[in-house]
Amino acid sequence: MNANPIHQSHPEIVRRLRRAKGHLRSMIDMIETPRPCLEVAQQLHAVKRAIAQAKKTLIHDHIENSLEQIVGPLSRDRRGPVEEFKAITKYL
């Protein structure tokens, strides 16, 4: 088993993180110029959400792929526990 597999979601996660990286650079400029704190706070919130979504996507993809490697593909009627496990990860 490959310890570091590339999953289907990885390119999208990279795109999200690159976008967040660009936002972070813009935010540094906003603070240095200076821009109103409300605008900076809004951008910080957007970056935080983008990173959180990337993290969630990565974790869900890992759960999906790791479980399928261990137990094999699950039928729709047997996916309940997997979906519940993915749902609880929002509390990480």
Name the descriptors.
mainly alpha; Methane Monooxygenase Hydroxylase, Chain G, domain 1; 3 helices
What features would you describe in this structure?
This protein has about 90 residues and is mainly alpha-helical. It has a single domain (about 10-90), classed as Metal-sensitive repressor, helix protomer (Methane Monooxygenase Hydroxylase, Chain G, domain 1, Up-down Bundle), CATH 1.20.58. It has helices spanning about 10-30, 35-70, 80-90. The protein is elongated.
Compact description:
This protein has one domain (10-91): Metal-sensitive repressor, helix protomer (Methane Monooxygenase Hydroxylase, Chain G, domain 1, Up-down Bundle). The protein has 3 helices and no strands. The chain has helices at 10-32, 37-71, 80-88.
Oligomeric state of shown chains: single chain
Output mean pLDDT: 85
Shape: elongated
The major β-sheet equals: none
What's the CATH class label?
Mainly Alpha
DSSP summary, beta strand count:
0
Task: Examine the secondary-structure arrangement and name the CATH architecture.
Answer: Up-down Bundle
Distance between the termini: 26 Å
Radius of gyration: 18 Å
| CATH topology value | Methane Monooxygenase Hydroxylase, Chain G, domain 1
Class by alpha and beta content: mainly alpha
Content of β-strand: under 5%
